[in-house]
Write the structure tokens for this entry.
Amino acid sequence: MTHPEVTLELHEEVARRLFGSGQGAGLGLIRTLPHLTARARGNCLFLKGPADQVAAVRRFVDALGRHLEGTADLGQADMQRLFDEMTQAAAPLTAANGAAAGSVREAPYEEILTTHTGRAVRAKTAAQHAYVEAMRRHLVTVSVGPAGTGKTYLAIAMAVRALRDKQVSRVILSRPTIEAGEKLGYLPGDLLEKVDPHFRPLYDALQEFLGVSRFQQFLRQGILEITPLGFMRGRTFNEAFIVLDEAQNTTVRQMRMFLTRMGYGSRVVVTGDRTQIDLPTPRDSALTTLRQVLGEVGDVAFVDLSARDVIRHELVKKIIRAYEAYFQEPGDGGGAAGA
């Protein structure tokens, strides 16, 4: 079948980023589409191929133009992610009742907040955008995915935004510390110093968003509270944004205790990676059964992130996929896969 040639007239900056030979050039990405030919002349892109592939390139070009309006920071990895998002089917958000929550809009996604150095923070993939939308719309959000997918980073960004917008008056961040018990008591220093190695990723994100001095000020004032999971028993948090990180290392009883800490005006986000369970008996992880337990509970959303959502070196995606393939066994993933 002969396809007519389609001409796209591009903005000068878009053409430069598409046709340039430096970092972030995109014409090579377009040429990876099967059955499609692409050539450039001046500020025009000439396409010949199936209509769906031409339409995908149009989406890519349009999204690239919007990205360049919002930021000049668009490297090769960002260009690859944008191309993948615009040329592949978007991952749907599935709510607790199992119904699709609708398709997400094309990138660039809405800015969540600006770091203290002025960098805009926003979702970079369709699934990340679904995750952000779930946190906006639901009282409890559960995000499951491998390392580097932005589970914790985006949760803390949304927590800081909620604090900034006065939707909450406190931010509570917690993690299970498997070494807690007796070992924690023998470590020198106060509670924060004892658990510092476990909570360092949370500190890093908060300091990026708030700056070191404001971060420390909020800690002193109790606006920010960073506490091991075991120290939350018996408490109730009202008007708080509560994040439980590394939830794969919580038992069912611990998860029940955590979720029932939620008070009036609060939101809860649970994040975890079911491939990194450090409990002595992995099947004891609450993350593997959480969807089964809360599947019929209203205002609870589950979002699954995958290797496609990894915002790190491209090799990290390949490593994650290799380990997923290695550990996948027949019959494996019943409860875990759905978590």
